[in-house]
Structure to design on (417 residues):
């Protein structure tokens, strides 16, 4: 123990004697870790924003439907009233800090027409009391308003559909689709509002109508889908497993957003891979800085290390002194780097990073339009991962110079001027 304290004291003394070199090395590590934390928090925030935007325009973080519905998109494969009740009960019992928001929907493909023409339409019957808190569409109004409780023969359509059909708020249009009975049924509706998402495919096809209207028009008692919105995407897998156990006896299918939004999931994985490539480059730069600083320190102190060997230190202990220097530098720079990274995130980016000048207003990825303001999210596990990886790089970069120091010949080293 006394010997170990002596070695640590020698390492501290060496760092203090070469204060400029030590400070530069620690600064390189601290800045690298701070940049890593900043990059990771912005990436995590961007990914969560993208997921939230996608699931709010789609089927939520978790989707419950009858087996076969995702492939057929047919009213024949719909949830019965009993399955719907079981699904809502399972969602209410799911293991999340806040109760998930469940949106009951009747969806079908059909045709939207007016005297000016006709367009294929994706028609969603939604609950106007729940959907405004679930969907982003209520926030994208360019004319009129979103559906409200008490609306019956009303429709909320996209700006692309309104332009191509030549309709506006207050205009009438006809929705046509195959009912549960198999007959082709038409429904006259009045446009109550027009939205713009920035995704042309949605703006030209997606129509929201009241759930009661969709059920009576299509002859459906239950629902085609229950879309579940969570407070954070990280709860998805746990909720899927819990809800699946509750609805399996009822014969319903439960899937997470990576299944229902494969394009978005693939885009996020690709972006995540790019982030890790950047991080690997950053790690390599930090590792080279540490290796260079510690190795140069060994080369410039060969005479000193030769004297230590002559005074009784073994080669292993001499190498341990050098390795301890690297460990102490890594610990100090790790603490400073985490504090610096979190401070930069909090002071400069807590209100978000506005990238509107770098991409068009209607920028979209994986079929989802995004807000160009990135809001950082501090994920504790990712901060810990960054610290561990930086520490590992610091230790590995110190190992080779320590090995070289332990191999120095005392007789030759003391001759070095």
């Amino acid at each position: 123990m006394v010997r170990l304290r002596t070695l640590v004291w020698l390492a501290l003394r060496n760092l203090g004697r070469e204060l400029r070199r030590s400070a530069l090395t620690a600064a390189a590590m601290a800045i690298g870790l701070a940049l890593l934390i900043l990059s990771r928090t912005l990436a995590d925030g961007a990914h969560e924003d993208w997921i939230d935007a996608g699931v709010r325009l789609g089927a939520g973080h978790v989707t419950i439907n009858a087996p076969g519905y995702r492939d057929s998109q047919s009213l024949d494969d719909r949830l019965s009233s009993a399955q719907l009740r079981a699904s809502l009960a399972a969602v209410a019992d799911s293991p999340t800090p806040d109760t998930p928001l469940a949106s009951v929907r009747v969806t079908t493909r059909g045709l939207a027409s007016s005297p000016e023409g006709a367009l294929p339409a994706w028609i969603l019957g939604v609950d106007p009391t729940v959907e405004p808190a679930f969907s982003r569409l209520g926030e994208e109004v360019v004319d009129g308003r979103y559906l409200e409780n008490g609306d019956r023969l009303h429709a909320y359509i996209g700006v692309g559909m309104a332009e191509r059909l030549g309709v506006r708020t207050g205009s009438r249009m006809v929705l046509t689709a195959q009912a549960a009975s198999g007959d082709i049924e038409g429904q006259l509706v009045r446009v109550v509002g027009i939205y713009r998402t920035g995704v042309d495919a949605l703006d030209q096809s997606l129509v929201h109508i009241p759930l009661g209207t969709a059920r009576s028009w299509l002859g459906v008692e239950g629902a085609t889908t229950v879309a579940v919105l969570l407070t954070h995407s990280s709860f998805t897998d746990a909720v899927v497993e819990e809800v699946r156990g509750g609805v399996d006896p009822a014969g319903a299918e439960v899937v997470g957003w990576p299944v229902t939004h494969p394009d978005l999931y693939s885009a996020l994985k690709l972006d995540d891979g790019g982030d890790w490539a950047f991080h690997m480059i950053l790690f390599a730069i930090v590792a080279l800085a540490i290796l260079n600083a510690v190795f140069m320190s060994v080369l410039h102190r060969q005479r000193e290390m030769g004297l230590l060997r002559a005074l009784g230190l073994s080669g292993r202990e001499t190498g341990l002194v050098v390795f301890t220097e690297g460990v102490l530098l890594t610990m100090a720079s790790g603490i400073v780097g985490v504090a610096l990274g979190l401070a930069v995130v909090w002071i400069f980016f807590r209100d978000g990073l506005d990238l509107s000048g770098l991409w068009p207003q209607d920028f979209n990825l994986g079929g989802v339009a995004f807000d160009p303001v990135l809001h950082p999210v501090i994920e504790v596990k990712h901060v810990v991962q960054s610290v561990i990886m930086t520490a590992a790089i610091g230790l590995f970069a110190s190992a080779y110079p320590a090995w070289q120091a332990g191999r120095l010949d005392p007789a030759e080293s003391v001759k070095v001027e």
Summary: Residues 59-260 form one domain.
